[in-house]
Amino acid sequence: MIEVQGVSKTFAGRPAVSELSLAVRRGEVYGLLGHNGAGKSTTLGVLLGQVYPDQGGVRLNGVDVFRHRRAALAGVGAIFESPCFYDYLSGRRNLRIFSNYSHRVPPKRVDDVIEQVGLTARIDDPVAAYSHGMRQRLALAQALLPGPHTLILDEPTDGLDPQGIAEFRETIRRLNREEGLTILFSSHLLGEVQQLCNRVAVLHRGRRVFEGRWDATPIGPRWVELEVDRRDAALTRLRESELITERTMENRVELTDSAGAASVNRCLVEAGFAVARLNPVKPTLEDFYLQTVGDDDTNANASEMPTKDASGRGAAC
Amino acid sequence: MLIVHQFIDELTKLFARKRTYIGFGAFVALQAMILALLQHPKARKSIADLLEKNGLGFEDHYMGLTLAIVVIAFSFTFLGGLYVALIAGDIVAKEVEEGTMRMILARPIGRVRLLLLKFAACMLYTLVLVWFLGATALVFASLYRGGLGKLFIFLPEEDLFAFYDTADGLGRYARSVLCLSYATLTIAALGFMFSCFRMKPAAATILTLSVFFVDVVLMNLPYFSDLRHWFMSYHIGFWVRTYHAYPPWAEIVESVAWLTGLMTTFVVVGVSHFAGRDLKG
Hints:
With 317 residues, chain A is of the alpha/beta class. Chain A has helices spanning 40-47, 69-73, 91-100, 107-116, 132-144, 162-179, 190-196, 231-240, 261-270, 285-293; strands at residues 2-11, 14-24, 29-33, 55-60, 63-64, 76-79, 150-154, 182-186, 199-204, 207-212, 223-228, 244-249, 252-255, 275-280, 307-309, 314-315. In chain A, a hairpin with a 2-residue loop joins strand 12 and strand 13 (252-255). By secondary structure, chain B is mainly alpha-helical.
């Protein structure tokens, strides 16, 4: 379990994180979303005891990171964007070095983890000869070696090819499902977060603007895919009936707040249009994220934005 | 014990890098050059005149032990500080720059313990480098002149004029190399301290060398001759004073205390700063 309580951090007078609170439950895959500079890396730095907060505290599995660093981090593995290793040493030696900062790991366990991440054939080569994907797998191995209960992943799929991303995603799912690992996944790749995470927190300019299940939140705009004969006339009729707005996108139309797919269908059929397809579009995490964060102009005063919980109600951070 | 494995890991990281050996290679090359230059007739005549004026035989004293001291004095002044500063300046700052420090500090290890392990590795490197310098200087000079011979040392600025037979000379040579290696740890501690601050490894090395060379230059200015004992390099030079027939032990102990105090201060300042600083990718 990861608890961040009222953490604020300022760098050179500029707030990086403001009164941030998060709670990641045991065994869940939790997404941390935000633009570059939103405060994700600072938050992870605070979580790992690498950045000292100006105020607030962090507990990992109930242990305060800054008071009992060793105990708090004993069950944590971390992977950073662009994992860094001693390039002149072999993958195996790197694993030994990093795992020795936690505790001695039996050679059998090392071999098992190497096999688990698929690096057996190249593990004794110098890391300098590894591709980005292999380095990322080595990073996963070093995170898993001490047998963690929590994984903290900072943009772990950045720079991976599509196959590498899919493999990494599957590994994360398996670790969560089979070993019950709690996973905090920070990324700006919304598709990855959508596929992996149970709950998300959205950071914007250092503040949490959402936390919870994004797909349980009523969000707009609501779109339907519409295929109908005499399309222009049909859209005019729907607008006159105040069922859709002026916004359209390819074959999609945006519903007004009071409309539903059924009322659109009824209106068109009664007016004699032949409806070939009427399909509500399920919103993606990207839709949700963009609506939550908005563009920079609308959020110029983001620090004054009310935060929302999963029900869409305003909530204090 | 885990700390032993962690220390071995620090040594592995240090000694598996090619640049760690630049210092060793450079010392060998410089020693060969100095020995070759000492073969020049003018150099030989100058030393022969000095020896004969004092009733000492050239062939007895212009041998391995005497030349080894000359080689050490020159090569350490030019390169010793440089290579120790290079490694010490890298030891923390390089890991921060390359991102491995962030990986390490995601682990359950305290920053103070980590830094002390790193400084211990840095100390070992420094000791090995100076001992290597002492051993190779003696071996090469002896091979070059065909034996150890007797020891002769003349340093007017230290009021030092001494000569010893082979056994006594060898003992004093070994003792002085040990003293030099201890003194050099001060430069390592200085480089380590700068390495703990938020700066590039090269900046830490350059700052270390700058402080050391400015200290040497100021100490050698005639205006400061009465204040020499306030300079770090004066105390670093205590190894030479062990060659006096009756070594000034009080002064030597004072220098050792000074250097120990400076080292401790540098390490405490570096560790304290690093322990309180934010590390962010």
